[in-house]
Amino acid sequence: MPTTEATLWPMIAHAALVFFLYWLLSKRRYAAVRAGSVKAENFRECREEPPESLLIHNNLKNQFELPVLFYAVSLALYVSTADNPASVALQWIFVASRYAHAYVHITSNRLSQRRPVFLVGFFSLVALWVWLAVWLAAS
After folding, report:
1. 46 pLDDT exceeds 80?
2. What are the distances in angstroms from CA 37 to CA 33, 34, 134?
3. d(CA 93, CA 52)
4. 96-139 pLDDT, tens per residue?
5. Which residues have CB under 8 Å from 85's CB, separation 6+?
6. What pLDDT is stored for residue 104 in this prediction?
7. Would the pTM of this model clear 0.90, i.e. be above it?
8. What's the pLDDT score for residue 1?
9. Average pLDDT of 27-41?
10. For a disulfide at 117, which of 13, 39, 100, 127, Cβ 3.0-4.6 Å?
11. Rounded mean pLDDT of the chain?
12. Residue of 91, 78, 80 whose CA lies nearest to 124
């Protein structure tokens, strides 16, 4: 099974989400400082996050938790040539779930909506790791 560059695009798409969230966090923090609701010095030692940017800050931290396993399995699939159309589809499902999770988290922040979206991403990631293990065991 030849390695395909299609495996790399979901990682690029997730990186784009992270870059966007950093931009949005910076914009919200800057606006909070300008509005006087927080002092710029608070960010030097991360003492407190203003309400205007708290949800974005929390979501950004989420992008470095479960997605670490996503990057690891994606690169492992790529270098071991275990990637295939089904694994690429699972990668896209994971990334779509991260976009949906981020949207819900930074807007309504309703747990009843966040949890199902999280679980879709979680189970797609589990399936990727299972596929990698099965492929390696069969090789």
Report:
1. no
2. 6, 8, 53
3. 30
4. 999 999 999 999 999 999 999 999 999 999 999 999 999 999 98
5. 6
6. 97
7. yes
8. 45
9. 92
10. 100
11. 94
12. 91
Cα–Cα distance list, 44 to 47, 51, 84 (Å): 8, 17, 45
- Show the tokens assigned to 91: 């990668």
In angstroms, what CA-CA distances link 29 with 15, 18, 44, 55?
21, 16, 12, 12
Question: Within 10 Å of residue 78's Cβ, how many Cβ atoms?
Answer: 18
What would the 3-class secondary structure string for the chain be?
CCCCHHHCHHHHHHHHHHHHHHHHHHHHHHHHHHHCCCCHHHHCCCCCCCHHHHHHHHHHHHCCCHHHHHHHHHHHHHHCCCCCHHHHHHHHHHHHHHHHHHHHHHCCCCHHHHHHHHHHHHHHHHHHHHHHHHHHHHC
Pair of tokens at residue 40: 């710029």
Q: What CA–CA distance (Å, rounded) separates 121 from 39?
A: 37
